[in-house]
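Hi all, posting the design record for the shared folder.

TITLE: backbone redesign
STEP: 1 of 1
STRUCTURE INPUT:
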């Protein structure tokens, strides 16, 4: 089924000029980038976005990292986009990520791991709505 997922190219990747290379991996996997913008995430936005991790020991560090530089927020569309993008991203920790995945290719470490992708269709809808209006998405 054609569906949408939400993606973020994180500050460690924008800093190293990897936006184009990451987009190539995304497009080569058959996912279409139907919306994209480069923003500076506010502290409030990052806190809301990662609210589910509020009790985790790395929460403060994660919010600080996500607001430390520009990010590129994206909506990706394709067959089974949520699961497909999780596969293309690779494991959270790049040391455990499969060959050819974005995190294996580019991530620095488990925190600075270059990309975010929604983990369910429900979360994808919520995350897309946090950063995009309907008319910004051109499918
Ligand atoms: P994923 O992004 O693969 O869905 P999680 O939802 O578990 O992973 O974690 C969200 C984000 O929090 C990770 O992508 C990473 O940036 C950060 N993170 C996760 N685990 C750690 C950790 N042990 N130390 C620092 N940051 C972490």
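Okay, here is what came back for every position:
SEQUENCE:
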């Amino acid at each position: 089924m054609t569906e949408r997922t939400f993606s973020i190219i994180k500050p460690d990747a924008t800093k190293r000029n990897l936006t184009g290379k990451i987009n190539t991996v995304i497009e080569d996997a058959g996912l279409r980038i139907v919306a994209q913008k480069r923003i500076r995430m506010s502290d409030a936005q990052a806190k809301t976005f990662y609210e589910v991790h509020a009790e985790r020991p790395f929460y403060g560090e994660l919010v600080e990292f996500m607001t430390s530089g520009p990010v590129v927020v994206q909506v990706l569309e394709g067959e089974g986009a949520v699961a497909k993008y999780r596969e293309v991203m690779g494991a959270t920790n790049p040391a455990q990520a499969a060959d050819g995945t974005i995190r294996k290719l580019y991530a620095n470490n488990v925190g600075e791991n270059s990309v975010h992708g929604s983990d369910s269709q429900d979360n994808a809808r919520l995350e897309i709505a946090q950063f995009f209006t309907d008319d910004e998405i051109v499918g």
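COMMENT: The mean pLDDT is 98.
Let me know if anyone wants the other runs.
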